[in-house]
């Protein structure tokens, strides 16, 4: 941690929405000891996307400065379901489902984090061992009035919507995680403000120095409206192929470019704002700025060479209006072939990973974003004989292509 304190804080401040408080962070850094920096992850989805990577990258910054990442896998709290921003009670997940997500997430998390400076905890190790007396003691540390300061809880009660007692306990469970690992700092998205501040309060109650809370903005998704989310299908996964990742970045609204540069890349801020001034003043084509953004992002998760190849592929297809020469060949899953020998197109799109679900695939078709050999398909119920699919070029959205190969594993 040889970097001056002012330099550390300046680096850590980049892209943050709020630090509670910066004075406390400075005091902790001045002690010269590695800080324990907590990030809780909710293992209820299988992929890490750029929105999630915003806070993971901030955690990596702490690691690069010599601090320790304390990753809290919410295997216990996921069975409750974080009620943040929800207008109804979430489905409680069985532990087996939660742990299957955890195993898929681990290699993705360590594409960003340094495993040598990461401590991984499972909050079932302390929450799952609590007696009912322990739960009552924990609940005694917080008042109902304080809990109802949380906007989404208050809104549910005002609108006569159900609010489960287990949901009220969720912020206390998450806050107790900070007590259990003696966190110095907790990172989170801006929607986690209430939960993270509960951690500060509980640490005081248990005689610990309260953690600093560092909140990051929520990354807007590909639709340009909602936060990036797998459930909304508006996300870019960090494990997606380079050309797919590049193409998705190029589909972003221009007004989000600065937002993405600051939160998703390491391009210096002064350079980002200079680019913004230039494209807004007409001195540079916004498309070229977005290509720079796409290259930066692809290079982070793949390589500079992969980024350059994806850029060239994009320019060949979309600037010169050529079809891809190397679209991946994807076999039609035999399991999708119905008794009459047809394949439901929406199901195929989801099965090969071009949509996160059948529902998202239907929306893409209805929105005019799907073509077979250049023919747009607009009927979400569209099924086609398997022999008519074989050899066709499937395009989903602007940037995802597949050459459909004969089925594999078919009994027919």
Characterize the structure shown.
With 412 residues, this protein is an alpha/beta fold. 44% of the residues lie in helices and 14% in strands. The chain has 18 helices and 13 strands. The protein has a 6-stranded mixed beta sheet with strand order 1-6-5-2-3-4, with helices on both faces. The chain has a 5-stranded mixed beta sheet with strand order 7-13-12-9-10. α10 links the parallel β5 and β6. α12 packs antiparallel against α13. The protein is globular. The model has no long low-confidence stretch (mean pLDDT 87).
Question: Which properties best describe this structure?
Answer:
five-stranded mixed β-sheet, 18 helices, 44% helix, alpha/beta, globular
Structural class call reads: alpha/beta
Number of strands: 13
The percent of residues in helical segments reads 40-55%
* Annotation field: number of helices: 18
Strand order of the largest sheet: 1-6-5-2-3-4
Give the biggest sheet: 6 strands, mixed
Low-confidence stretches: none
Q: What is the mean pLDDT? A: 87
Computed Rg? 24 Å
In angstroms, what separates the terminal alpha carbons? 65 Å
Strand content: 5-15%
Report the principal-axis shape: globular
